[in-house]
## 1
Amino acid sequence: MEIHPITWRKNKIIILDQRSLPTRIRYKRCSDHREVCTAIKEMTIRGAPAIGVAAALGVALGAMHIKVYSHEEFLKKVESIIDEFANTRPTARNLFWALDRMRHTLREKLLTAGIPELKKILIKEALHILEEDIAVNIKIGSYGRSLIKNGDRILTHCNAGALATAGYGTALGIIRAAHEEGKKIHVYVDETRPVLQGARLTAWELSKEGIPHTLITDSMAGFIMKQGKVHMVITGADRIAANGDTANKIGTYSLAVLARHHSIPLYIAAPTSTIDLTIPDGSSIPIEERDPKEVTSFYGRRCAPKKTKAYNPAFDITPAELISAIITEKGIITPPYSEKLLEIHEKKTGLC
Ligand code: MRU
């Protein structure tokens, strides 16, 4: 079953509205790049690779509507659209990676192509980014499935599935690949408070694929590990620093501590576009703080007293020493990470 969270159709961007899932399948049609910015901010589309794809398509859409006569003005306007996207969500490295790619493509062709052609080049590059992401996910799945044995029970957090990418998924892509291979697996799905990406999105994807799974609240993870029900934890990543420290959905760090205590491996699955070698360690990764209302309410209804304040960091940092391996489209790396991340980042594959 293929899930397409974002597509480009007749010069519009069609986004599957992840806020309404799983109860309603709704699409948001964007004909203006500002609508795409809003969709990213409001998490109509979310997940690091999907945000990158949405921003690339959004830049192409915005560029399409620019009406200027000089290349200089065109570049200035595209740069300002890129800046708008850069201000949507701060943590996912893939967003900035995709924007850099769009900027680079434009600058490279600026002196040799006319403005109408440059617009087409930007659309083509954004669609490349989308297609590549699916190919990259499938490759991550093919490497990662080797870590899963028949009968394994896997705990995952948030949604790192088809919905969080252009399709197929990273952490969930590995689970999907193991299932497609015929391995009998069972997935424990953290509900992932406060936005419930696990309960609403991961459980939805697993149901559609017919992959056996059980939903738990985030606070149950330690107990089921103690009961011997979990063989490994696999999650995605929003940004991986040069030393391997990893930002991912809030709660991942707690899982990593619990996993280490119970001698359970924790694997991070991510494309190399999530690696940020400009950041030495996790302490410099920008962590998004979202509206406290996400915490004081549950599924749209206030559950805390009116005057109660809440703190809502959307991500946390898992230190490299708690990560058993990082699974990318270029292979699997194990600690110590610094040199291997550098090598894998530079490694060329036929995918990009
Ligand atoms: O706030 P979200 O839903 O965008 O957070 C998403 C995550 O933390 C995912 O685990 C991460 O982006 C990896 S998705 C392949």
## 2
Amino acid sequence: MEKINIYDLMLDDLRKILISLKEMPYRRDQLLSWLYKKNVVDFKGMKNIPKELTEKLEKRLFIGSLKIAEHVKSVDGTEKFLLKLSDGNFIETVLIPSGTRNTLCLSTQVGCKFSCPFCASGKKGFLRNLTPGEIIAEVMAVKKISKDAITNYVFMGMGEPLDNWENVLKAILIMNDPKAMAIGARRITVSTCGIIPEIYDFTKLDLQVNLSISLHAADNSLRDKLVPLNKRYPLEKLIKACENYINRTRRLITLEYVLIKGKNDSIKNIEDLVEIARRLRAKVNVIPYSDVSVLGFSAPSREDTKEFLKNLTNRGINATLRESKGVDISAACGQLAGKIKK
Ligand code: SAH
């Protein structure tokens, strides 16, 4: 029998395994505490687990922790971790301190299918989904070496979370469970380039998890170019899915808007964006483009970025600027590429 990664297991599955091993149910909670609260990555280090049980567990299960292959720190405090997966591929995870927040940006796939032309993550194409346990292991690996507590978790690393929704959801449920990581759902954000059926699924779950939409363009012809998925799921359908989300959950969404010089920064672009933001009562998060040299796009100047933001706020939109962090270590938005095994 192939061994199972214990990080892949939903809490109920772990309970069932313990029952099948003729163990008492309270052992599960002990295991969860060692795994997720004390971050122990070896069954032998779990002090109140008897030796016989440790041996039984080791026959069926393994703890799929991930090794940090590289760890770099930016001058602005952002830290990037290159994690080695068991198949030899690598993913990147970024820890971003900002004021009282310490946000962990998680990857969900090796590569990405959606080929937004300005983003590095999709450049090498798509390789595979991460398992729930690999996503959990990203969190645990960073927690292990981070001095400060992580306050927020965003699925904004490599990949498209709603394209791997089953696994991402499992990871979120484990992260959120009080017996496991006990991370409040409101501290977790899922970001999508707009996969509509999954936005409806996400809505139905009625989680308290935040939803962000990578809009980047507010008219179809421009969005078709910047976010090619728009050809399949055009703006009017995306807006409907967002309206349904807002009405059903009574929660607001954030629209992310990567500001690219000469591409989506005109007054007409602003007016289109304002119309959608008003309709959705959404906050707009403006992200100045972070340079990915080979892709041929460029960042707006600081003044132009401020002007763009002012044009939004003057029209009554709640708009914020997301400072590019970790640029010097290629850890900023859209710069994560990981590594695919040669
Ligand atoms: N696939 C999901 C999750 C990735 S989030 C999504 O699209 O939402 C990463 C965010 O950074 C997305 O909004 C993405 O469009 C944006 N991004 C990509 N390349 C960028 C770049 N070079 N500069 C700034 N933001 C970028």
## 3
Amino acid sequence: MAQKEISGIIASPGIRIGKAYIYKGVNIVIPKYKISKEEINFEKTRLQNAVNKTKQEIMAIQQQVANSLSSDMADIFSSHLMVLEDPAIITKAIDSINSEMRNVEWILNDISLELIKSLDSIDDVYLRERIIDISDIHKRLIKNLQKIEHESLADLKEDVIIFAEDLTPSDTAVMNRDHALAFVTNKGGRTSHTAILARALEIPAIVGTIKGTSSIKNGDSVIVDGVRGKVLINPSNEEVISYISHQQDLLLLERELSKLTHLPAKTINDVEIGILGNIELPEEMAVIKDHGADSIGLFRSEFLFLDKSLPDEETQLEGYRKVVEYFSPQPVTIRTIDVGGDKIFGANEDYRERNPFLGCRAIRFSIANENLFVTQLRAILRSSVYGNVKIMFPMITTLDEIFIAKDIIEQVKYELQQEGLPFAENVPIGIMIEVPSAALNIDVLGKYVDFFSIGTNDLVQYTLAVDRIGEKVAYLYNPLDPAILRLLKSVTRQAAITGKDLSICGEIAGEPRYTMVLLGLGFRNLSMSSAYMYQVKRVIRSVTIEECEALVEKLMSIESASEMTSYHETFITTKFPFLFSC
Ligand code: PEP
Ligand code: MG
């Protein structure tokens, strides 16, 4: 049995060991034949029955999701029901049966191909995301027309790790959670509905592996490492033993560390460190609070935009209000949408920009789509009356973008005032520092904003010119590169001179191995997901600022990234053997 290792994007964390099961979904063959005049009514009845059955199935899934997760998650399926009720599909199908006298499968296939083609050509990432909804519905309709027994992940009878080309949201939602240990898909990115559901269901998942299904056979043994973004196929006995103990250690550690939840995040010498939360969806807010964050340093609002094509102001307001009220009076920093880059990954490869990370992303996208931006700002500002809201702009490159964005905010405030809609007057406006130009210019930008949050995920990518999702250059993507430490040191120094609040919200803020470095560099507010919040707090409570500064000084005296990394690794694993032993 050949041993292999593949890597992908962590959609949902965790480690699982089990047998592979390749899920093919429905394999549709579309029958194509002409019908006689006498058969027209029969064909229309077949269509109606299939539509009814499909609706019932989707409503059942929706109910299941609402019961086990939340009504927001169940809403994902409302768009499926809308597709089924869309006259552009059903009435058109009936008309075509009457006039063209072709069988219903053939007609439905043409209609959905046409719809997919038209969505495909729209230069709008949200609308293009609807393609997966349309093909999901199309497959269900054809299956119900032909009475094909759909291979369903609800019917899993034994524990498996699912491998698939891609999974639809309904595949994921109905997955038998007693037996679905984890899943691995060839396609997809962090922002797909499927990834969102996986996190909410706490099913470890690796997506975007490209070659996952072609590397595996049914029954192969597999380790899904949702900590490092790897899948080990036919691992050695030693690897299995080491991962079993890794899993157990993680569980024990988690249990032990959870006792820290209500203890303050203070260093030995009493320096208080802010632990803030990063969330993507309102559903995550309870978990993040339970782990000990009492405010939100980064609400990645673009994830709200994935449920519906373009959520209206009221829908957005509802999403923001929930989080803002929940954390009130503590602040919630809502970042305006950051689409582009890897966030169109999986939607439609043809429409990716040539250099998507350098393209029309984040604030550039918002400025270029002002209507959308205005709707979002109206919803955010209106949510400010329910608690303590801060607005943050992603990927600021140059001062002019701040001026433009702030002008739009002023215009939005004026309109809200005219309409008599209340909002808090002094909502702080901040920016992400994630582009080197902003990091180098932070003293100037600071004159015009109220706070900064450092996005190292992008700052590392742009400073080192290394794609943050590129497998082939992953070896270069290293936060412990001398250039990064120098840049971060200069950022904390300059930010302190401006007197504006500073936090850091890139992934390194939530990785305990970097906590000492960040404290030593001068960061006092760390914004992170819940995954390693306890561990980060554990490190904070075991160190003094002086020893963190000494570590940074030592690291900055090292010239090469590899030497710096290896010195740091030895230092940190020796100091915290229990945290980094597996
Ligand atoms: C970052 O770039 O560090 C960041 C927090 O933003 P995102 O990961 O959403 O790009
Ligand atoms: Mg970023």
## 4
Amino acid sequence: MKERILKNIQSIRTDGKSTVELYNEISEAVMRELTFTPPSPDKKSAYYLSIEFLIGRMFYNNLFELGILGDVSAILAEKGADISVFEEIEDAALGNGGLGRLAACFIDSAAGLDLPLYGRGIRYKYGLFRQKFSNGFQEELPDDWQSFGDPWGVRREKEALTVHFADGDVRAVPYDVPIIGKDRVNALRLYQAEGSAQAEKISEYLYPADDTEEGKLLRLRQEYFLSAAAVGEMIGRYVRAHGRDFSRFSDFHAVQLNDTHPVLAIAEFVRILTCGYCVPFAKAVRIAGKTFAYTNHTILPEALECWPKEYMRRILPDIYDVLQKLDAKQHREFRKNGVSAPDEAAMRIAKGGAFSMANAAVYVAHRVNGVARIHTQILKDSLFDAAYRYAPEKFVNVTNGITQRRWLMLCNEELSALIDRCIGKGWREDVSQLGRMKDFADDANVLAEFSRIKDRNRARLAQYVLKKEGIALLPDAIVYAQVKRLHEYKRQLMTAFAVLEIYEKLKRGELPAFKPSVFLFGAKSAPAYFRAKGIIKFINEISEKIAADDAVNKKLQVVFVTDYKVSYAEKIVAGADVSLQVSTAGLEASGTGNMKFMMNGAVTCGTMDGANIEIVEQAGRENNYIFGAEVEEIDRLRRGGYDPCALLAEDAAMRRAVMTLADGTFGDVGTGYFRELYDSLTVGASWHKADHYFIMRDLPEYVDALLRINKEAGTPEFGRKQFMNAASSAYFSSDRSVREYAEKIWGLG
Ligand code: 26Q
């Protein structure tokens, strides 16, 4: 196959063609020769249902997975074309953050491990918005990713299904995208909604605004659309192969629900079995239980979906009936088993006038998993404590991972080559061998080469930032990076305050030995998330003020990159020195950016939260910079006695940093953003106490940690710390995660 693909590409003429034309021709030359590996009818397959798939750029990745990236690069060079021009082709951002990128890493790993795991998602016409800054404010532009063509998607007209809503039918047309492994090509199947203008709206936008009833209903339609299409397809295939006896359904299908968004798949499955095939309700629920498993990705209450019954009755009356019956069955069962009233209230599917999607999933699924050890523990101890006491055998942990193919081999070729030279190439097939790099932690030559590679990657990152932003990063500076969704719990605002404190210390001459440092931010704010937008503006104001101050601007720089996405992340993780992972302990379920930085040899400056805990367990706490309150302390503070204003009163530097939100140092053009942020920290709001993410508790320790890093950076000891992180990262390969899912949850042999 490789030879044929290369021959196809060899015969392409490059002269006079635009980048987009060439991109399409080369991609098509690959697609002509690829054959999808079909699910085998007599073996079990697993399906990963997700409202997001954040695949990133496919072009280089696919050539890499086929083992022909170098050859294609050489062929193009002969023809006078540079393979890097395809970086102009924007990647489809059919996701927003960690949850979507995790889905992409998992299907990549499964293909590599020769496992039949198939993604099922939505082919949004517009992905996550493109971000611009205007006067430091975020602006959102539509992400028209199909304007470059979609050579990797194969429309499957004949496999289209119909999805029924009370007010009309919608066609779900599958598009298959190849996920290439060594021995198989799995299909990521994305459904496009068609049939009418109203139908098309369903697959128009990822996360449409849901501040109106219409918006909420559209989101509900999306969730049902994905669920019904995926379930309809599975049941159809099962019936054709095995007939109408569903007792063996779960011998052939495992379905993983990526958070609550596709949980309606459970109800749809029960609906079809009971209404379409006369399976008794209890039996249908039992089969669903054996088939479905649910992953929780967040404990934040605002992200736990509850759908008003009234919406459900209006557009999905049959699903409403199923959920009502499921709730009644749950109630009978709990009564029979003597479940206490408070426990029942916590676990009940019907809650007030709404259905709790998480409770439905936890009740039916045979496995419920968190995404890092501490997160799973929190699920057991608090969010789902009653369910854990009721059915402890359901709960398992699977710590997240990332694909080392995209996040090391592809984005950091030089480090990968160094690893090859030290331990041979076996790690490329079996990532667990990467740990053998630790044997070289005291080899001065290897460490020196490792540092030079970091320097070159940092320089490449600087080139990229210059091209994208028109900003020259400070030469030879330490790069501290915080790139992730913008959210209060992730505490980008705390980093902003830390930078302000450092800025002031520099101005006062208190840091004579301070080494040049760049604070690199990348994040998108949800369009309607008022505070997150205020934080972006605040950081951009700080950036500008420091850049304009000749007394410090050779030492300190703040850059908020625009339109942060997968392809930007690939440059940043390779070039950064310090990974900022500073969420309030207990709130970041896992984090996966933290793993990408680690694998590329950045130290973590962070709290004991999410996967940070397992990162320092693998790499050594002494090789990272851990600070701040741990979960127990945060719990205690939450119960009472936390007084951020008292902390501000005691700490003048912190007070001055926080006051800049209110004292006119920075302007927000009358939007009220800054005042509202200030109030949220000092007096709270109707729905929360002051500083409920505990910034004042952790900020002084954060500043200390950043300054400690600044002192140590550039020394051989610091280089060794970075090296130890990369050398200890094998555990965070999504190959390991996917194997765990296959064994503990899917029962894939
Ligand atoms: C919920 C209700 C209404 C509208 C939107 C949502 C919604 C949308 C997206 C809720 C959550 C998300 C995305 C969550 C997410 O990305 N979570 C991250 O998942 C990663 C993979 O497990 C973890 O590493 C991160 O810690 C977690 O934040």
